[in-house]
Design goal:
The complex is a heterotrimer of chains A (224), B (240) and C (280).
Chain A lengths: L1 E4 L4 H13 L4 E4 L11 H6 L7 E4 L2 E3 L2 H12 L10 H30 L5 H24 L12 H11 L12 H11 L23 H8 L1
Parallel strand pairs in A: 1-2
Antiparallel strand pairs in A: 1-3, 3-4
Helix pairs in contact in A: 1-3, 1-6, 4-5, 4-6, 5-7
Chain B lengths: L16 E5 L8 E6 L2 E7 L5 E5 L13 E3 L2 E3 L6 E2 L5 E3 L18 E5 L2 E5 L14 E8 L3 H7 L4 E3 L2 E6 L2 E10 L3 E8 L5 H21 L4 H4 L15
Chain C lengths: L3 H4 L3 E5 L8 E6 L2 E7 L4 E5 L2 E3 L1 E4 L2 E4 L20 E4 L3 E3 L3 H8 L5 H4 L16 E5 L4 E11 L10 E11 L2 E7 L7 E10 L5 E9 L6 H19 L7 E2 L12 H13 L5 E2 L4
Parallel strand pairs in C: 16-17
Antiparallel strand pairs in C: 1-7, 2-3, 3-4, 4-5, 6-7, 8-15, 9-15, 10-11, 11-12, 12-13, 13-14, 14-15
Chain lengths: 224, 240, 280
């Protein structure tokens, strides 16, 4: 399995994160999205006429949309069905959140591209759009907490969480601060705490994991 | 919010300010809050001890709210300096053997937990505890409107030290009220009695309806809900 | 305030590869809008109708708003045969250009900010190293810097004790000389060219000159972009945004000798653009 990847892309990170959580092996091909704009060149357009990343190739199958790739990987590699539930109600909600994740890309993701690479867009509108989505996410996550659930669809994470996570956690890169979204911050923590979690630039590994002891040198001194 | 420095004009008030709900603030939490215009790192140790510090590492100025909790200490994300409850630096990873002098320390405000709320005071002397008014936390909410707009919209029956008592959808509730920078207001909703998850969901929506009313009256400038990077780069159309 | 010292220096404003015939690039340098254009034959820089000095070196376009007091610094190793030259584009950061340079000179943050790549939490110690301000060259140098790194470069496998030298040839440029995994005895060169957009915002242009024929070009670029984007979230959260030159404002330790020398050198040269000279 081969992933055409750009290391700073939140949509590519969705696939890297999910593959890490499930322990799915794959190889990557780095595509020079910036500064090379390689996705606009003929060789890449033959692979994906949409000129977008990520692209996943598995045998004869080529997939070019991060939500499609997450769905494929979950159905292929997760026999428990946890990550992509088939219950009609849950599946319908899941599809709704995958769509919500694309809205996040268009707002929070766009604000980030403007802030980092000066992509010419209306950054203030993108930031406002991101805040409107974060408010909806906060409301939903509060509901979930009232039901003792930490994730979008219940007590266990699904590909809905993976799809929405990157452009929420990376929002501060684009000047969209997460202060004041208490439930969103707790949800980010719950995802970072998952076994096998993979960080990306702008999203730290969980340094505060309760299992991590104090540094050795300090412990020795405190005990002395 | 914008990358805001502590305002030099902020005057410390003598009272406690409610900055978050106890519910959901698990041991090991570390968040950025504002009190009296000050930028603050509010964190809880693994044993549950609460601290509120000036949001700035003394080493290289990094916001401590980006740091991480280890046991009873808060570590800065930049260089991993570990600070104990007394705000003194106990460990500098670049020099593991060094015992840092007492001059090396974070700056502490006062922190307090009571009645389902977390409180911060930036006063020099720790004020007396707020009057008792027990509550059960529902949720917090940030409103793009200043406090007087809320006061005009809500029918507050009683006011007590940073908290308003009122009726929301026939439920007697408590609202912790906190000023945020740029004319915004943070509110923390509690019920006076334990209620069901369904009631909490209903109240959560009522609170959002109240927010819509407030924001329709006093739309805060675009910069408050979407921070605008400073400097000419953001308006120069610098697009190669 | 833009003082003469800042005005008269050279700054990067574009990659040479961006100079397509007929192109017109709009840039902001120290709050002033400038244009870079290429007429198919030659490249020009303007501020309004005023022609600015211009030169193309190290894969980047350099200009100045004033009359440059000295020539652009030399990086002789960067022009040796057999090296791969890698321009990584630019990253915009909401921080002082001087904070961006200082962070690049710092190794003590590797275990926490570049965890598992440039540093590891169980190897955080910074050993003694040598720092000098070279008065003759008017540069800051740090030598004999050693640090444990889990993955020092894209081409490195497994942890090594990496040897570093740092050189600051201009207030907004830092050059790192680093153990070369592919060629014993040679130094890989990794630079940070910084374009001051304002006192609290900058564009950063990382550039590398490496002995590495194996690693795909895109992997080299993305390795460097990974590292710098990890730094960016730090740089945008330092208070104050300006680099404090008052020693009482921040608390350095022995690991920060390069940063101490850098601040002292800035003060001595009276380079205050992006600096806080009086404690708030």
């Amino acid at each position: 399995m081969k992933l055409y990847d750009y290391v700073l892309s939140g949509n590519c990170y969705k696939i890297r994160l999910f593959a890490a959580l499930l322990g799915i092996p794959y190889e990557t091909v780095a595509v020079d999205l910036y500064p090379g704009k390689e996705q606009t060149r003929p060789a890449f357009l033959r692979l994906n006429p949409a000129g977008t990343l990520p692209v996943l190739q598995d045998g004869d199958l080529t997939l070019t949309d991060s939500s499609a790739i997450l769905t494929y990987l979950a159905r292929r590699h997760d026999p428990t069905g946890q990550w992509c539930p088939q219950d009609p109600e849950l599946l319908a909600q899941l599809v709704g959140w995958l769509s919500f994740a694309d809205d996040l890309t268009r707002t929070s993701g766009a604000a980030r591209l403007h802030a980092i690479f000066k992509k010419p867009i209306d950054s203030v509108a993108a930031q406002k759009g991101a805040h409107a989505l974060l408010r909806r996410l906060e409301l939903h996550l509060c509901d979930q907490e009232f039901d003792d659930s930490s994730f979008l669809l219940g007590k266990a994470p699904t590909i809905a969480d993976i799809a929405c996570f990157p452009y929420v956690a990376l929002a501060p890169d684009g000047g969209v601060e997460l202060d004041g979204y208490a439930a969103v911050q707790r949800w980010i923590y719950a995802i970072r705490k998952l076994d096998g979690f993979l960080p990306m630039p702008g999203i730290h590994p969980l340094h505060e994991h309760p299992d991590k002891p104090l540094p050795e040198g300090l412990n020795a001194r405190l005990e002395a | 919010m914008t990358q805001q420095s502590p305002s030099p004009t902020a005057k410390p008030s003598s009272s406690w300010i409610p900055v978050a709900l106890s519910a959901g603030f698990r041991p090991g939490s570390n968040i950025r809050v504002f009190a009296d215009g000050n930028d603050i790192a509010l964190w809880s140790s693994f044993s549950g001890k609460l601290s509120a510090w000036v949001n700035r590492c003394p080493h290289r100025g990094m916001r401590l709210s980006h740091g991480f909790v280890r046991g009873e200490m808060l570590a800065c994300i930049y260089h991993g300096w570990h600070f104990a409850q007394d705000a003194n630096c106990k460990y500098i990873p670049a020099h593991p053997e060094l015992v840092p002098g007492e001059m090396i320390c974070a700056q502490a405000h006062h922190a307090h937990e009571q009645d389902g709320l977390l409180w911060v005071s930036c006063a020099e002397e720790e004020p007396d505890a707020p009057a008792r008014l027990p509550g059960f936390g529902v949720r917090s909410l940030l409103i793009d409107a200043p406090r007087p707009v809320l006061a005009g919209v809500l029918e507050v029956t009683h006011e007590a030290q940073g908290r308003w008592e009122l009726t929301l959808a026939d439920q007697p509730v408590i609202l912790g009220v906190q000023d945020w920078p740029e004319g915004r207001t943070g509110v923390h909703l509690l019920t006076k009695e334990a209620v069901s998850a369904e009631t909490k969901k209903m109240l959560s929506r009522e609170l959002e309806a109240m927010r819509r009313t407030c924001e329709a009256i006093a739309p805060v400038s675009a910069s408050a809900s979407a921070s605008v990077p400073s400097g000419p780069s953001s308006r120069s159309g610098d697009a190669a | 305030m833009i003082n003469e010292i800042a005005l008269n220096d050279w700054y990067p404003v574009a990659m040479a590869s961006e100079l397509k015939p007929g192109c017109r690039l709009n840039r902001v340098l120290m709050e002033r809008e400038i244009q870079i254009s290429n007429d198919g034959d030659k490249t020009h820089a303007f501020e309004g109708s005023r022609v600015l000095p211009l030169q193309i070196r190290y894969d980047h376009v350099w200009t100045s708003l004033g009359a440059p007091a000295r020539p652009l610094f030399e990086i002789p190793e960067g022009e040796q045969d057999g090296r791969r030259l890698v321009a990584c584009g630019r990253v915009h950061v909401r921080c002082s250009p001087l904070r961006a340079v200082e962070n690049f000179l710092d190794i003590a943050h590797f275990p926490y900010v570049h965890t598992g790549i440039l540093g590891a939490e169980d190897h955080p110690e910074v050993e003694r190293y040598d720092v000098e301000i070279d008065d003759e060259k008017d540069e800051v140098w740090a030598r004999q810097v050693k640090f444990f790194q889990p993955q020092a470069a894209k081409s490195a496998e497994g942890g090594i004790m990496a040897d570093y030298m740092y050189r600051v040839p201009a207030p907004t440029t830092s050059i790192l000389y680093k153990t070369c995994p592919a060629r014993v005895g040679e130094w890989d060169i990794i630079t940070l060219f910084v374009q001051p957009v304002s006192e609290t915002t900058c564009d950063v242009w990382p550039w590398m000159a490496l002995y590495d024929d194996e690693t795909p070009f895109n992997d080299l670029v993305q390795f460097q972009q990974t590292i710098f984007m990890q730094d960016r979230s730090i740089l945008e959260n330092q208070i104050p945004a300006l680099l404090p030159l008052d020693p009482k404002m921040e608390t350095p330790t022995r690991a920060d000798l390069t940063s101490i020398a850098y601040r002292r050198w800035l003060k001595r040269r009276r380079m205050f653009y992006g600096a806080q000279t009086i404690a708030a």
